[in-house]
Amino acid sequence: MAQPRTRRQKEVRRHLLLYAGVTPFVVIAVFPIYWMAITAFKQEPDLYRMDNIPFWFNLAPTLKNFQILFLQTNYGAWIVNTMTISTWVAVITLLTAVPAGYALARLRLPGAENTGIAIFMTYLVPPIILFLPLSRVVADAGLQDSWWALVLVYPTFTIPFCTWLLMGFFKTVPMEVEEAARVDGCGQFGAFVRVVLPVSLPGILTSVIFAFTLSMQDFLYGLAFVSPGDQKPVPVGVPTELIRGDVYYWGSLMAAALLVGLPVAVLYNFFLDRFIQGITGGVVK
Amino acid sequence: VVALPARPTSRRTWRTASRQRLIFGYTLLAPAALYVLLLVGAPFVFSLYLAVSDATVGDPVATFVGLENFRAAWEMDTFWIAFRNSLVFLVVAAIFKSVLGTALAFLLLQDFWGKKVIRGLVVIPFTLPIAISVLSWKWMYDSQFSVINWVLSRAGLIGSFGSPDWPVWLGQPHLALAACIAVNVWRTFPFSAIVLLAGFTSVPLEVLDAARVDGCTFFQRFRHVVVPMIFPILMIGFLFDTVFTLSDLSVVYLLTQGGPGNATKILPVLAYQIGIQAGNLGRGAAIALCLVPLLFPVLILVLRNIKRREW
């Protein structure tokens, strides 16, 4: 009778040790977001009192910061911009990356492997090197000062990433599925559209998610190409438009950051393993 | 005699089928390839051209000036400060995030109740859009109402506001650089941990068991089995992080804009300020391109590792 008890005690002790080890990491990781959240709901005077404990409300929580955001700033427009940009980017990415991923993974094109790697490598050309020449491209296309500029440039990183990701997906679809469709009288294109695409739906959905989340991670392109206040996406609009000179409206700033940051973080969280798998290629098998 | 005419026909259909397949394949590939070629390849070449021209935002007709932009950058004190800061930033951040990442990875390798939730919480810094999380840090680094200082002050480590040991995180040169590095470490240590975890879990248990049966000690198993097996993925994670850390402008730009003085000026910030804010496209492009020699070895290494992908 004594043995299971000690084993259980051992288990409990092991858990306690592990939690003790993990807690500092969780606190470090989450505190800035907690701080963001609590600030967003605090009244202005509550932010600037050092005599109270700042980790909780010393005055009643308020929604005023959110009201200001929607009534007195372009925040609503930025959300619409962000959603529209991301949707367009997702559409462009799918229309290009799905066929390309399929062709590179399935059609035994000569040099497919190297072409795939070359396309993926362009994901590693950082925006800081491309933004000056692209500013000229954007100007020549007449898109400067409108969010359409971002619809044009964001696919430069979503296409390489998603093509690579989809190549991996298409490789996992058994060749027999496609061959069976061909035997049943589908052409090459028919087999692709009717059999391979439906089977690869999870991969395609993942690509859509990445088109959204990777677009949200950009700051430089938005900062460099879009200056009118009502044309900016959220991650650029919030830090550049909500700070007027030296005055920081921390309540509204944090509200703005929280409202968009949290859903993106949660969504990305679910697909993080896919992202890691994507960039580490097939190195992890 | 009967079989004879069939041969050329079958060969012809085979040949046309394969030609069809190639045409079909290249047609499918074309949009993505063209997009990348026109909006990444061409701009990259164009940036080489900008770097040797005197193009400005106001004067788009550029003339060739040779290496003048590089020479000018070379003679700029700010350029060398930015170069040094970029390297310090990269190295110091890499040390901290690998230590933190490794520790976290070993913890998450264990089985415990609620691990999924904890993992989800710990990776939030990496999944939050950077421009948004930096704002929270900026508020935490506030010169007067910094919550970090509140804690330090209550713990008795520093005096109250106004005392000489009250740290102004973004206002004092060394602190400012450390503060920027801290944000980068905060954002990317979960990434290091997750990459490492992916590496560990990719080592098949049978291999470890086999090594154990062969009489390997824990250290030998680690040294001769685990490390070689996870090395490629570690390299890739490390290299990706290097590229993103070296080329990221948002943390420093939003926290300090490179100040105070030039204490946190890094190459991307300098390139932005000269290329866009001062409108000197040529010189900005030249400065941005100075990242390439730093990035190039990294790219080569990624390429060598990625080739091991199983097809």
What can be said about this structure in brief?
Chain A is mainly alpha-helical and 285 residues long. Chain A has helices spanning 2-40, 44-47, 64-72, 75-106, 112-121, 127-140, 148-153, 155-172, 175-183, 188-199, 201-217, 220-225, 234-241, 250-279, and strands spanning 243-244, 247-248.
Give an overview of the whole structure.
The complex is a heterodimer of chains A (about 280) and B (about 300). Chain A contains 14 helices and two strands. The radius of gyration of chain A is 24 Å and the shape is globular. With about 280 residues, chain A is mainly α. In chain B, about 75% of the residues lie in helices and about 0% in strands. Chain B is built from 14 helices and no strands. Chain B has helices at about 5-50, 70-75, 75-110, 115-120, 125, 130-140, 145-155, 175-200, 205-215, 220-245, 250-255, 265-275, 280-290, 290-305. In chain B, α2 packs across α13 and α12 packs antiparallel against α13 (about 280-290). The interface between A and B is large, with 98 and 108 residues.
